[in-house]
């Protein structure tokens, strides 16, 4: 009887230990990913994409929403550099712009979110999107999503930041950026994080300032 009395507590202790271990690592000693760090696989509604788009105070310092309403749906040709072309598998998107310190002629920023039906179609569109004549690659230690690219137009100084996470591609373009991609990176990372938060059923709270601080630590 004595042995049977202690068998149940021992089993419970083992189960609790296993549960605790599985919640903190992936079984290989690595920290398990939080739900807000997972690749984007959800088919977002138009409202969810709109919700994830950063507003003025959530964008890089000095930027506020420009002429286009935050709720403006994106179009298929926002996701390609060929006018009138619809990339295979495109389902919906989001599109908005931002003015820098109220200016409509300097450092304007464009944000495009492009959702696809499969990761394979998103990857194909991403590859075509990031291979552009006249732009050169810029290496940046900080990354975002499954694939990340930073490009510069050496003539105009405009900066481009791209990311693919699962079935979603994101583009951030800043005109007259003087070859500086940091604001583009911070906006890219914040937008991706906000979409991940929405996918996890949370309110999007990530900001460009937070992503900038994290990038500094990498």
From TrEMBL:
This is DUF3558 domain-containing protein. Residues 70-96, 199-218 are annotated as: Disordered. Coiled coil: none annotated. Keywords: Signal. Residues 1-25 form the signal peptide. Residues 205-218 have a biased composition (Low complexity).
């Amino acid at each position: 009887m004595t042995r049977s009395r202690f068998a149940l507590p021992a089993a419970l202790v083992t189960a609790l230990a296993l549960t605790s271990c599985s919640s903190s690592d992936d079984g290989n000693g690595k920290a398990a990913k939080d739900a807000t760090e997972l690749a984007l696989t959800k088919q977002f509604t138009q409202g969810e994409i709109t919700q994830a788009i950063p507003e003025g105070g959530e964008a890089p310092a000095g930027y506020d929403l420009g002429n286009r309403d935050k709720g403006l749906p994106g179009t298929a040709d926002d996701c390609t550099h060929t006018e009138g072309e619809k990339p295979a598998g495109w389902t919906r998107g989001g599109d908005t712009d931002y003015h820098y310190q109220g200016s409509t002629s300097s450092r304007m920023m464009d944000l495009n979110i492009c959702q696809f039906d499969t990761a394979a179609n998103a990857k194909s569109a991403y590859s075509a999107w990031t291979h552009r004549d006249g732009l050169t690659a810029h290496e940046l230690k900080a990354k975002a999503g499954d694939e990340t690219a930073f490009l510069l137009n050496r003539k105009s100084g405009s900066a481009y930041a791209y990311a693919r996470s699962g079935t979603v591609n994101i583009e951030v373009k800043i005109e007259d950026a003087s070859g500086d991609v940091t604001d583009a990176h911070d906006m890219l990372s914040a937008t991706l994080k906000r979409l991940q938060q929405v996918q996890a059923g949370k309110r999007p709270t990530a900001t460009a300032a937070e992503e900038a601080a994290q990038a500094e630590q990498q």
